[in-house]
Amino acid sequence: MRKRSMVALGLARVWLGPGYADRMMAAQLLGSGAIAVLMLFGVATGEAPVIDVALTLALLAAFASVAFVRYADDRNSHSQQR
């Protein structure tokens, strides 16, 4: 029961914010948990495609973090020029 409430709190943080960085960090946290579950499931069942999907999601999460930081930095630099 406790795990479900933590996921619900994470989803609430993604939905409500208060800021973009908070939302991104909550989404990354939920994604890391999902990747861990997929990896454990893939190892337990011996299904290599599940592990491949988990690793692909991890790579996409890294790219999403980099894109978010670049977007936030770009937005911050534009607001300072005004």
Description:
By secondary structure, the chain is mainly alpha-helical. Helix content is 91%, strand content 0%. It has helices spanning 2-16, 20-45, 48-81. The chain is flat and about 55 Å long. The protein starts with a helix and ends with a helix. The mean pLDDT is 84.
Task: Give the topology, please.
Layout: H1 2-16, H2 20-45, H3 48-81
Helix pairs in contact: 1-2, 2-3
Using brief descriptors, characterize the structure shown.
3 helices; 82 residues; mainly alpha; flat
Q: Rg, please?
A: 16 Å
Strand content: under 5%
* DSSP summary, beta strand count: 0
Helices and strands, in N-to-C order? HHH
Extract low-pLDDT stretches. Answer: none
Globally, the shape reads: flat
User: How far apart lie the N and C ends?
Assistant: 49 Å
Number of separate structural domains: 1
Oligomer: single chain
Largest sheet: none
Q: Helix coverage percent of residues? A: over 70%
Mean pLDDT: 84
Helix/strand-derived category reads mainly alpha
Summarize the structure.
By secondary structure, the chain is mainly alpha-helical.
